[in-house]
Amino acid sequence: MKREEKGAIIEELTGKFQSIPFFYITEANGMTVAEVNTLRRMCFERGIEYKVVKNSFIKKALESIDGDFTPLNDTVLHGQSAIMFHPDNQKAPAQLIKEFRKTNDKLQLKGASISSSLFIGADQLDALIALKSREELIGEIIGLLQSPAKNVISALQGGGNKLAGILKTLSEREEAA
User: Fold this and answer.
1) Closest-CA residue to 14 (of 55, 81, 65, 86)
2) Contacts (Cβ under 8 Å, ≥6 apart) of 60
3) From the CB of residue 162, how many other CB atoms can be counted at a distance below 10 Å?
4) 105 and 38, same domain (yes or no)
5) Same domain, yes or no, for 87 and 138?
6) CB neighbour list of residue 76: distance below 8 Å, 6 or more residues apart
7) In sequence order, which ranges of 20-133 are alpha helices (DSSP H)?
8) Which own/partner pairs from 124-133 qualify as long-range (CB within 8 Å, at least 24 positions apart)?
9) How large is the angle between the packed helices 3-19 and 55-63, nearest 10 degrees?
10) Mind listing the pLDDT tens digit for each residue in 94-141?
11) 8 Å CB contact between 53 and 82
């Protein structure tokens, strides 16, 4: 492979890392061609980009972006590596890996980066699936902030009806007396 081709691959990876704030690094040693094709088909159907890339290219691309990815160099970037990207859904690759592992345990999660937070090791898969996206967290915060306001409004509306009822009863008593 020529130097220009290597540079183009690293430049493309750098662009992906900068534009998509989350990625997954996997290992699929020992998979047959049919198993890899099944994995690639599942990725394609879910909009996940799956690329087998040399570890040295990944290291060089990560060095040129903001953030400390050195823990990946020591523990993750060895052996055969593939990267999974999804432009919108940070959980989609983790869900796919978990689903694929039900029938084939050769696919392993080596590590992931979600908004510059590193998750290293296959034992982090469930944590990555349970992780809430930025939009989900914002929605929850808005719901929590609206809840007290709704309670105050309903109390004021409910209290207003009671107050009107009490005043009506008192005025009826005065008229009867």
Assistant:
1) 65
2) 10
3) 9
4) yes
5) no
6) 25, 110, 111, 120
7) 33-45, 55-63, 70-75, 92-101, 125-130
8) 125/94, 125/97, 125/98, 126/98, 128/24, 128/90, 128/91, 128/94, 129/91, 129/94, 129/95, 129/98, 131/90, 131/91, 133/89, 133/90, 133/91
9) 60
10) 999 999 989 888 888 998 888 778 888 888 888 888 777 777 777 878
11) yes
Domain holding 155, by residue range, is: 133-177
CB contact at 8 A, 67 and 116? yes
Structure tokens at 55: 């570890």
pTM, two decimals, is 0.73
What's the N-to-C CA distance of the chain in angstroms? 104
Q: Is 65:116 a contact under the CB 8 Å cutoff? A: no
Residues 69, 124, single domain; the answer is yes
Specify the residue for token string 């998979």.
Answer: 31
- Give the E-state strand segments of the chain in sequence order: 22-27, 49-52, 82-85, 108-114, 117-120
